[in-house]
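Dear Dr. K.,

Following up on our conversation at the group meeting, I've run the structure prediction for Tetratricopeptide repeat-containing protein from Flavobacterium potami. I'm pasting the input sequence below exactly as I used it, so you can double-check it against your construct before we proceed with anything downstream. Let me know if the numbering doesn't match what you have in your notebook.
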Amino acid sequence: MSAKKIYFIVLLCYAFSINAQKLQINSSKNYINSIESILLQEKNFGRDTTALKNYLNPLNTSENKVLYEGLLANGYSNFYNKRNKTSENYYLSSIQKAKTSDNIGLEIWSKLNYINYLYFYRDYIKLTPFLLEIMENLEPLRAEQIINADETYKRIGWILNTFGDYNKSLHYLKLAEKQAKKNTSEYASIINSIGLNYLRIQDYKMASHYLNETAKISSQIHDDVRYAKALGDLAMVSQQKGDFATAISFLKKDIQISEQNKSDQNTMYASILLAELFFKNNRPEAAMEYLQKAEDIAVTKSYFKKSELQIIKLKLQILKLQNSTESELNLRRRMAAIEDSLQSEDGDTAINQANWIIEKNNYQLRINEEKNKYETILKKFYFIIVTMLSSIILLVLVYFIKKYRDRNIQYEQKVAAFESEKAKIDQKDHQNLKSQIDYLKEKSVQIKNLKTEIENIQKSSFNYLEKSKGKLNTLLQSHLMTDQEWTAFTKEFQKGCPKFYALLHQNFPEITSSTERILMLQRLDFSNHEIAELMEITNECVKELKIKLKKELGDNYKALFGRFG
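The predicted C-alpha cells came back this morning:
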C-alpha cells in the first residue's frame, strides 16, 4: 500500500473520529437535569481547539449559547494553560447572555464557571465581586433550582476557606454535603474540605473525623489522588497534636501516591509540608531534598508563584541555619520578583484586599439588614395602628348597628303594644250607650298616650325611626273618630238620652254637628281633655267653645243642662 493511501485512510479515520465525538443533548422535562447532563459530558481536548469546537457545536444555538461559550472558554483555558483574553471574552459573553436570558440558575452557573477560572489562576480580587453576586443570588433559591447544587456550594466553600472565612465556608460546604451523592469522589472532596475547615478553626476532633471519613471513602471508590490528599491533611492534624512521626509518615505516603498518579500540584503541596516538618525537626538536608522536588514543579506554572515563594523563604531559613550564603542572592532576587507580581494576584496582599471587599459588602449587607428590620418594624407598627383603628371602627360600627337594631326592636315593641290595645278596644261590643261611652273614653286615653309617645320620640334618638316609618302617627290617625263612628255614637245616645237629644234639636235647630257632639259628650260627663282628644282639638279650644255656647245660648244653655244635669 502506498504512503498516499495510508495517509488518506488515516485522515479519513480522523475525520470520522472527529464527527463521532460530539456532545449529546438529551431533552428532559426538568431543565436543570438537562443542563447537568450536558455539563457531565465536558472534556479536556488539550491543544486541539478544532476538536473542542466540533464537540461543542451542538450547543452553538441561541437557547444553549450560554453553555457553549462557557465551555468554550474552559477549553481555551486548557489550551493556553494560563490567563488568556480568548477565554475571558467567552466567559464574560456567557455571563452577559445568561443575564439577558432572565434565568437565575444559568446566570449563577456562568458566573461560577468564570470564578473557577479566576480562582485556578489565583486572581482573588477580580473574582470577589462575582462571588458576592452569586452568594446574594443563591440566598432565596432552593437546591433544586440550582445547576449542580453540590458543586456550586462546594466551590463557594473552597473560596471562602481561602479567604479565611471558615464559618461561612462551613455553611456552604454543609449545604454541599446534603446535596452530594454518598460514596462518590464529589462527596469525598466535600467532606475533605469540611475537615480542613475544622482544622483551620482548631477543632481537631471534628477535623480528624471528616478527614478519616474522606480517606475511607476515597479508598473504597479507588480515588487514589483524593486518598493521598486526605493523608496529607491528616498529617497536618497530627502535626498540630505534636505527633510529628505520624505526620511525616502520612506525607511520604501522600507524595508517593500523588507521584504515581501524576498529580503534580498535590505532590508539590505535600513536599512543601514535609519540608517544613523536617525543618522543624532539625533535619535541613531532608527538608532541602523535598523543597527541590516541590520547586521543580512550582516553576512550571505561573499560578504556582505563591508556592514558589513559600519554597524560597524556607530555603533561606535553612541557609541561615546552616550559616551558608550559597545562592542566597539569587533566591532573594527571585523572591522580590515574585512578591512584586503577587501584589495584585495570588498572595496575602491580594487575599487581604479580597477580604476587605467582602467585609465592606458584609457591612453594607448589615446596614441593609438593619434598614430592612427598621422598615419591617415600621410596617408592623403601621399594620398594628391600622388594625387597631379598623378594630375600633368595626366595634363602633357593631355598636351602632346593635343600637339601631335595639332601638328598632323597642320602637316596634311600642307600636305592637299600641296596636294590641287598639285591637282590644275595637273588639269590644259597642251596641249600647254604656259600651259607647267606655269605647270613647278608652280611645281618648289611647290618643293621649300616642300623642305623648310621639312627642317623646321626637325629642329622642328614636326620632329617625318615626320619621322614616311613621307607624305611631298612622296608628294615631286610625284612633281618630270617623263620621261612621260618630253616627253610631249619636244613634246610641238617642236611645240612652232621648229627652236630651229631642230638646237639643227642638230648641236649637241650627246647631252644627261638631257643637252637637261636644254637647252630647258634655252631657255624658266627658272632661274637657277627653272631648279635645275625640274632637281633634286642643283643651283650650274646648273651654273657649263652651264659654261661647253659654253666651250664645244664654238661658237655654242653663235650661238644657239644668234639667238634665
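Two things stood out to me. Residues 481-565 form one domain. The two ends are 168 Å apart (CA to CA).

Best regards,
J.T.
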